[in-house]
């Protein structure tokens, strides 16, 4: 039996070749091809994944534009989200965001392993202050252990979600926290993934002005002015997408106590996306490593020496050099 990690869940399958007649990743075989709703992969293309024994899961996923990381020895396969999941400018959909359609939303990505956890009360205040203008905060925790996030959500009234499998971070190409995305009433990107703070608690480290950022947010909510930022998310590279799948497998293995196997996948992820702190720092708690300790600061030094920015805000949110 193999565990399939896909679409935000875990499924047991008999092997990497799926028997004929089975539904695969939500797709069903029809006479003219594989279909999911109105979308279909025609038979002549699907033939590349079909064998006499069944359908090769990895080959089928690749037909859908989805990357695969498999560890046959450990009995686990992870399938990523499709490349180009949405139309240009459309915010990738997930359940909690869909409930807020018709409302302006600030998607606030945070984690208990980041100092940005101390910004949550300020985000809660903005949520309450601007609710009358048709606005909501939706905070997304990147904690791999949901319990780590829950203690920081006590008393919060805005919608929240814990992205323990990293799927939402994958959809929005989030490589560190705090990251914020603005989504308009029609479910389109008003401002892409930027480093944004709601307080100046760590301004000496990140050089960001929360006053500028929050003022810009208020202008967008009240006056509809989103500024000159791009209206599309920065797309991940193929290596970044594959790194996230290695991280998903590593998290699954760590929860199962298979530390050595998990470290192999963490090493692979770090080689593919050395800048992705959501992976490299985010998995430290599952490894029993202090995310505020020596290993984290060594990682910061490594990235700084390589000229890799830890915080990636647009210029209008950075500290005024004057």
From TrEMBL:
InterPro entries: AhpC/TSA, Thioredoxin-like_sf, Thioredoxin_domain, Thioredoxin_ResA/DsbE_sf. One of its GO terms (molecular function) is oxidoreductase activity. This is Thioredoxin domain-containing protein. SUPFAM superfamilies: Thioredoxin-like (SSF52833). PROSITE patterns: THIOREDOXIN_2. Residues 85-219 form the Thioredoxin domain. It holds the Pfam family AhpC-TSA.
């Amino acid at each position: 039996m193999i565990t399939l990690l896909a679409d935000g869940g875990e499924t047991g399958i008999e092997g990497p070749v799926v028997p004929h007649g089975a539904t695969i990743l939500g797709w069903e075989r029809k006479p003219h091809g594989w279909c999911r709703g109105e979308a279909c992969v025609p038979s002549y293309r699907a033939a590349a994944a079909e064998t006499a024994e069944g359908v090769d899961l990895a080959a089928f996923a690749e037909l859908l534009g989805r990357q695969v990381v498999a560890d046959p020895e450990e009995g686990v396969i992870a399938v990523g989200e499709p490349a180009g999941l949405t139309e240009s400018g459309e915010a990738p959909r997930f359940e909690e965001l869909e409930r807020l359609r018709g409302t302006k939303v600030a998607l606030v990505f945070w984690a208990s392993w980041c100092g940005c956890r101390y910004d949550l009360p300020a985000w809660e205040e903005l949520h309450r202050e601007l609710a009358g203008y048709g606005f909501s905060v939706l905070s997304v925790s990147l904690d791999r252990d949901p319990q780590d996030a829950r203690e920081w959500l006590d008393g919060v009234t805005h919608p929240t979600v814990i992205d323990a499998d990293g799927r939402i971070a994958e959809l929005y190409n989030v490589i560190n926290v705090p990251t914020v995305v603005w989504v308009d009433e029609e479910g389109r990107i008003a401002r892409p993934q930027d480093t944004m703070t709601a307080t100046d608690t760590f301004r000496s480290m990140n050089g960001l002005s929360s006053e500028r950022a929050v003022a810009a947010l208020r202008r967008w909510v009240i006056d509809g002015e989103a500024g000159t930022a791009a209206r599309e998310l920065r797309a991940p590279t193929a290596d970044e997408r594959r790194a996230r799948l290695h991280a998903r497998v590593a998290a699954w293995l760590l929860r199962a106590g298979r530390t050595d196997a998990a470290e192999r996948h963490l090493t692979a992820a770090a080689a593919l996306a050395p800048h992705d702190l959501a992976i490299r720092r985010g998995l430290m708690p599952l490894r029993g490593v202090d995310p505020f300790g020596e290993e984290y600061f060594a990682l910061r030094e490594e990235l700084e020496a390589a000229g890799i920015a830890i915080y990636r805000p647009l210029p209008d949110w950075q500290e005024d050099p004057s």
